[in-house]
Amino acid sequence: MLWNREILDLDPTLAAMNNLVTDWMNGIQFYLTADTPITNGHLGFIDSPWALSALNQGQFWKSRDLARDYGDGTVRDILSVDISDWNTPGILYGKPAMDCTREQIAAETWAQIQAGLYGKNKALLRDDCVHSWYLDPAIQWSNTEGRNTNDEPLLINTAGSWDQRPTTHTNIPNLFLAGDYVRTNIDLATMEGANESGRAAANAILDATGSNAEPATVFQLNRLPQFEPAKQLDRQRYAAGQPHLLDTP
Question: pTM of this prediction?
Fold first, then answer.
C-alpha cells in the first residue's frame, strides 16, 4: 500500500484499501503485416489456458490508415490480447505466464490464439504476418523472485469491496484519486471505470476550487433489462439467507 502513517492519520478510511483484492490481467499487442478481420467485436478464447481475449484494432480505425500513418509502413493490423490467467501452465512450455520470459509469453500467447481459431480465421493468423509484438511494461522479470512481477494489478470486485474502496475526493483537501479502484457509477475494474474516475476527479477538483468551468460529463453503466429479473431473484434469495442459485447442488 502506498499510504504512509501521515496520510492515514489524516484520512483513516484509506486503510480499508488494504482489504481490496487484485489479480493480474495484462496485455500484449501483435503488430501484423496483413489485415486480419477475424470478427467485428471481441474475441474470447474460453478454452485457452491463459484465459485470453482479444480485439482486432485495424477494423475500427475508420479515419486512420495504419500502414500509412504509423510504423515503418508495413503494419496493417494490430491484435490486442488480454492475458487473464497467469498461473495455469501453457501449451508450449508447460509453464504459467508468471514464470515465462517476455519472449515465451509472446510465443505462448500466439500459439494459444492460433489453437483457438478454426476455418478461415485460423488461416488469417500466420506466423509470417507477425511484424513485432509489445508486452505491457508493467510485467517485469525479477531475478530475486525468479518470476515476473506486475506493477499494475487489476482490482477484483469481491463481496463487500465497495465499502473498502475510496471516493474520488478524500478527507485530505488536496488529495484526489482516480483509477479503477475508486468508487464510480461504473462499478467494474475496466478502462471505462478508470476513465469515469478521471472525470469524477476533475469535477471534484472544480468543486473544491470553486471553479465555474464546465464539468466533465459523467456516465451511468448501461444495465441490460434482460438481466433484471435474475438480479431481483438473487436479491430476494440473499435477503432470505439462501445461497445463489449457481451455488446450489
Answer: 0.80
